[in-house]
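re: ur question from earlier - yeah i can do the single chain one, its not a big deal. heres the input i used so u can compare w yours
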Amino acid sequence: MRAVRSWRTVRGLLLAVSVMLAGCGKFFVPPDHSGGGGGGGTATARVYVANASTGTISGFSIGTAKLTAVPNSPVTLGFAPIAAVVSPNNAYLYVAGSASISVYAINSDGSLTARNNGVVISVASLDVSPDGKWLFGLDAIQNTVDQFQIDASSGGLTPVTTPAAYPALSGTITPRKVRVSPGGTLVFCALGNGGERVFTFDSKSGSLVYSQGLTLNDSAASDNAVTVDGTGAYLYVARSGTNGGVAVYSIGAGGALKPIAGSPFAAGNRPFDIALDTTGKYLYVANRTDGTISAYTVGTGSALTAVPGSPFGSGQQVISLAQDPAGTYLLAGANGGGPDLSMYSIDGAIPGKLNLATSVATDTAPAGVVAIAVTH
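and the output i got, formated as tokens:
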């Protein structure tokens, strides 16, 4: 993938005037000053769903085997969302579209208030550093990771002037997923057939430096999503195509990746997203083509063993996974609906087994779910 040569200049101009543009047109809405949109966060577990077909964000409170829509849900965006992430303090929801990142304050009742401090830029995936000070966007046009400093009082975004670039190496780059390690010292990028790129990160200075890459050397393979275990010792990759499944790597100095024995581990057709439970004992993979979720127990050295009964049925084209902060439920968003959003409890008798607890339509079905984001 190659960017249009003039894009760097155009993007620089757009970023420079993004504050002035915010609040104009459909992308941004002036902030609410009624007192309900302070972005103070919430203790109630909630999930926010990005619906591309309807151009909305839906929010639900997570109860006992129940999902309850938050007030004023769904919220009309005025654009088709691509990615979403909640800040670590649960104060803000960041939503990426094809040409912007918008900021929403999360109110105490879970409702959303649009802020006018987003930025004009195109990214394919979002993640926030564990300290909540930095937002990362995997650029959809250039071979860069776009980086923004987060204003703690407003959620506003200040772009780093020169985004961190990564080399093409081999394969066809298709930006898929960006993830920050739990310790906040490494940033991993899944690039489809282009494999992975790893950056070292210093949260105090904001220094993001390219470290190394992992190539696939197979045109039929694609790395679609990544996640890191809680200790920062292992990287898990949802890989489709040749030698597809779940690829597991030990993480060395500077993010050096080394496959563990037995990797990749078999999954369904077109693994597209991946999630670890809060204990690190179970791993789940969304198989987009099959409409199923593969489940594994995580053993010594992060070796994976399929859970009895896996894979488990989900919605059509299941595309996004996340676990609630208590570790009670796994949530799954399906691009093709039927249903849009499913919530599973984790079986007590058969470790890691998924039991459907409830499901909901997130908007006019199928809503075209592309991403889900949970509070922390």
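The longest helix spans residues 7-16. not sure if urs matches, ping me
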